[in-house]
């Protein structure tokens, strides 16, 4: 696992070493559904919110403004992205509100990273399509979501209702950035929810350009 983590860290740093400076300006045109994800988190007063693979910190800033009483946490495997996230949070006046750390999405612990038993809300935005073992990342994120909490995910879908030329071109372009939409993501969300005794919600956005999934955990965890 350590070798795999190091290799992916190096790859992500190589991908984002220069891109991080223009990431938010360019990605706002095609990372659709991020704000809808944040609006639906419905964070309780004083609740804890974790973003897995937080990138530039853009979503944490949005969440912080939407939920001013929330306690915010984030991690990313890329040290380059974390450098940009810290600078963005400082400019937004949120440096003291958000705890950031480097970690691997496929193997993390709320307690080990942040001294938290779990998080009221966990979200993953357009990152599973870049994580090789994305199923492990999704499973790990749910395990760190508190009873009664919510895990939310948004990512590229299969563009089933869009013209074939558009889908083919988009997938070829995304592949240049090591991005691969996960065809099995909707089924994985449902399967994890069923395993956990939780409730799943799925929405296919913008003619299946993106998929937004939420897992609402029960107040009492299901027996293992």
Automatic annotation (TrEMBL):
In Pfam terms, one family for this protein is Methyltransf_25
The superkingdom listed in its UniProt entry is Bacteria
Annotated GO biological processes are:
methylation
- Molecular function GO labels: methyltransferase activity
Q: Which InterPro entries match?
A: Methyltransf_25, SAM-dependent_MTases_sf
Which SUPFAM superfamilies does UniProt cross-reference here? S-adenosyl-L-methionine-dependent methyltransferases
Give all residue intervals belonging to the Methyltransferase domain: 49-149
Q: Which controlled-vocabulary keywords does the entry list?
A: Methyltransferase, Transferase
Q: What is this protein called?
A: SAM-dependent methyltransferase
The organism's taxonomic lineage, starting at the top: Bacteria, Pseudomonadati, Pseudomonadota, Alphaproteobacteria, Rhodobacterales
């Amino acid at each position: 696992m350590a070798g795999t983590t190091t290799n992916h860290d190096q790859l992500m740093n190589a991908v984002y070493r220069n891109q991080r400076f223009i990431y938010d300006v360019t990605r706002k045109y095609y990372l659709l559904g991020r704000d809808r994800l944040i609006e639906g988190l419905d964070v309780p007063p004083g609740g804890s919110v974790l973003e897995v693979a937080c990138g530039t910190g853009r979503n944490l800033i949005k969440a912080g403004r939407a939920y001013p009483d929330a306690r915010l946490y984030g991690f990313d495997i890329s040290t380059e992205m974390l450098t940009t996230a810290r600078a963005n949070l400082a400019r937004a006046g949120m440096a003291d509100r958000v705890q950031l750390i480097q970690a691997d999405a496929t193997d993390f612990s709320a307690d080990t990273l942040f001294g938290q038993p779990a998080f009221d809300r966990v979200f993953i935005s357009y990152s599973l399509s870049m994580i090789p073992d994305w199923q492990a990342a999704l499973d790990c994120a749910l395990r760190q979501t508190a009873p009664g909490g919510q895990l939310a995910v948004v990512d590229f879908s299969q563009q089933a209702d869009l013209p074939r030329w558009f889908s083919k071109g988009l997938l070829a372009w995304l592949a240049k950035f090591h991005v691969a939409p996960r065809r099995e993501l909707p089924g994985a969300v449902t399967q994890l929810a069923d395993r956990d005794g939780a409730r799943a919600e799925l929405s296919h956005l913008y003619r299946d350009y993106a998929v937004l999934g939420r897992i609402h955990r029960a107040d009492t965890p299901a027996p293992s």
